[in-house]
Amino acid sequence: MASASSANAAITSFFFLALLIGGSSAQLSETFYDQTCPRLANVVRASVRKAIESDIRAGAKLIRLHFHDCFVNGCDGSVLLEDAPGIVSELNSPGNQGIQGLEIVDAIKADVEKECPGIVSCADILAQASKDSVDVQGGPSWRVLYGRRDSRIANKTGADSNLASPFETLDQLKAKFKNVGLNTVDLVALSGAHTFGRSRCRFFSHRFANFNNTGSPDPSLNPDYRRFLEGVCSAGADTRANFDPVTPDIFDKNYYTNLQVGKGLLQSDQELFSTPGADTIPIVNSFAAREGTFFKEFRQSMINMGNIQPLTGGQGEIRRNCRRVNSNSGLFFGGEGEGEGRDVM
């Protein structure tokens, strides 16, 4: 009997431990800061609105940082870490070449620290700021789940291999989304974030001529739109064009109606609609037909993405400076890392 009781106790302990380990992502909660930082959402929203008022591209910059954070080691704020002893920044990855918005995150973090110092992670700030970036500019709203903690490490190698590229095919894009547990609907919905923001010509000008060594332009690129873009890009490879030529600063469904007429700016955008027989085509059509359908799926896909492998509980830390691990993390860092962010799109 004693032996059986011991065995039962061991089994019970094992399953309890398994629940604790397996439930780490479930620790994210809408109410996580209700007692420790109850005005968090209001503070972040005010800071995001202020940023957008001074820079219409601020929202697109913030949501891009959140995307690129979650696709590498999960949503842990690692994309924000700059080079330092023991850290090779993900910002050095080709997929993050020139990414902007770090100074906006710094400003939001400063406002949050004034309200409730040492409480809110940079990873949670990115999640909340992304939501606010969308609904402030006309898109859907949702309740953000909180409880993420910040990584003490970066993963430049992971950024090199995991971030989606504007030059990729649909199969390549699907594989990268599948690798982080996101499906085809997530891919199409989250790509809709390109309904606002800009991209530099260097990321799409390969479509103008000799596309894939064919000697001709990308056949999926609307000829009139191509000629318009060629005019824009005559000013240089770093010139920016709107992702959405119709309503460039509003979060709406026009990204999908643009795809239907060959006006997806990036190759990776147009692949969703112009890949023959693709299962993404009916999803694009459904989002183009009804904005409410797009908003519903985008909202859920943002929550899905925000749940990718968060650090919770005693993992990681709450960074005081989003660009640096805390000085008590075992590494030495000088300075506060002020300065301009980088710019990709």
Which features does this protein show?
Peroxidase; metal ion binding; metal-binding; mainly alpha; Peroxidase, domain 2; 13 helices; 345 residues; disordered C terminus; hydrogen peroxide; globular; Peroxidase, domain 1
Give a written overview of the molecule.
The active site is at residue 68. It comes from Cucumis melo. Disulfide bonds join 37-116, 70-75, 122-322, 201-233. Residues 27-326 form the Plant heme peroxidase family profile domain. This protein has helices at residues 2-22, 40-54, 58-70, 102-115, 122-136, 156-162, 170-179, 184-191, 223-233, 254-260, 267-274, 281-289, 291-306, and strands at 198-200, 240-242. By secondary structure, it is an all-alpha fold. It folds into two domains: 27-164 and 308-326, Peroxidase, domain 1 (Orthogonal Bundle), CATH 1.10.520.10; 182-305, Peroxidase, domain 2. A two-stranded antiparallel ribbon has the order 1-2. α2 (40-54) packs antiparallel against α4 (102-115), α3 (58-70) crosses α5 and α10 (254-260) crosses α12 (281-289). It is globular and about 55 Å long.
